[in-house]
């Protein structure tokens, strides 16, 4: 009978599991989860509830991170994906990732203003968007770490890696997963990324078909960019791109249009 380690290795393909990578990524994801709380809780007098919210957030997200990072650490190199690859042109590639994040977010902001805002006006709860206190720019800057790190660990490193591996195993392909399998995983993870933003959307809009399509397209476009960067380069490039995109959304736009 095979031992646990032998079974583990047979499933993965090489028997290794980098516990150091796993631990660093989980810890980084948890710290990044805390970074979004100042923006979410700004202007609220919570008292003792603040600590309950912090603990609850860390527990809930921590469980998801352990699962997602565990999957990613277990499978990513088996399917030809990478956490980080050192290269002489690393700065150029990070610059490219940042520019793609900025451009993709600017594109969907324009698309939203021209196409989707008129379509979802009737779905605003109460007919008027409620006035909320304008959070300082530094809270948006911190929130970018949640998007750039935590969301990428969950959606790209965990989910997309699992989808690539699952598609590869189901099709019985030799060698590495095909381009078609990878693209299917990129798009599917991007769609789920868009759907994951619906709970926040319900605070402002009723869930009409137009609102759902808006969330999928606007978030899915950037999700595809992040997934492509993870596949073409590595996870850190997806993180850099996501962080840059969130700087447009959470820092630049609120500063220009308070």
Structural class: mainly alpha
Over the alpha carbons, how many angstroms does the gyration radius reach? 20 Å
Low-confidence stretches: 1-15
State the helical fraction.
over 70%
In this structure, how is the largest beta sheet organized? none
Outline, from the CA principal axes? globular
* Order of secondary-structure elements: HHHHHHHHHH
Number of helices: 10
DSSP strand content: under 5%
Give a description of the structure:
- The chain is mostly helical and 258 residues long.
- It has one domain (4-256).
- The protein has helices at 4-12, 19-35, 37-41, 49-75, 90-120, 137-171, 179-195, 198-201, 209-232, 235-256.
- Helix 2 packs antiparallel against helix 6 (137-171), helix 4 (49-75) runs parallel beside helix 6 and helix 6 crosses helix 7 (179-195).
Detail the topology: elements first, then pairings:
Blueprint: H1 4-12, H2 19-35, H3 37-41, H4 49-75, H5 90-120, H6 137-171, H7 179-195, H8 198-201, H9 209-232, H10 235-256
Helix pairs in contact: 2-4, 2-6, 4-6, 5-9, 5-10, 6-7, 6-10, 7-9, 9-10
Briefly say what this structure is.
This protein is mostly helical.
Descriptive keywords:
single chain; disordered N terminus; globular; mainly alpha; 10 helices; 258 residues
């Amino acid at each position: 009978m095979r031992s646990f380690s032998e079974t583990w290795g047979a499933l993965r393909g090489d028997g290794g599991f980098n516990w150091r990578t796993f631990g660093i990524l989980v810890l980084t994801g948890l710290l990044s989860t805390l970074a979004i709380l100042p923006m979410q809780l700004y202007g609220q007098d919570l008292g003792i509830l603040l600590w309950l919210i912090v603990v609850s957030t860390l527990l809930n997200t921590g469980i998801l991170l352990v699962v997602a990072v565990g999957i990613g650490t277990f499978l990513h190199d088996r399917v030809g994906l990478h956490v980080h690859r050192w290269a002489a042109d690393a700065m150029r590639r990070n610059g490219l990732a940042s520019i793609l994040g900025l451009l993709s977010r600017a594109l969907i902001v324009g698309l939203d203003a021209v196409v989707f805002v008129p379509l979802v006006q009737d779905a605003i709860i109460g007919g008027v968007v409620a006035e909320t206190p304008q959070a300082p720019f530094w809270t948006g800057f911190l929130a970018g770490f949640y998007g750039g790190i935590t969301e990428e660990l969950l959606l790209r490193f965990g989910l997309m890696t699992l989808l690539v591996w699952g598609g590869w195993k189901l099709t019985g392909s030799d060698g590495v997963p095909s381009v078609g399998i990878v693209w299917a995983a990129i798009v599917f993870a991007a769609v789920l990324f868009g759907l994951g933003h619906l709970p926040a959307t319900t605070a402002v809009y009723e869930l009409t078909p137009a609102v759902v399509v808006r969330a999928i397209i606007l978030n899915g476009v950037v999700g595809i960019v992040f997934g492509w960067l993870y596949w073409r380069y590595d996870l850190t490039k997806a993180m850099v791109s996501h962080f840059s995109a969130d700087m447009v959304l959470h820092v630049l736009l609120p500063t220009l249009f308070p």
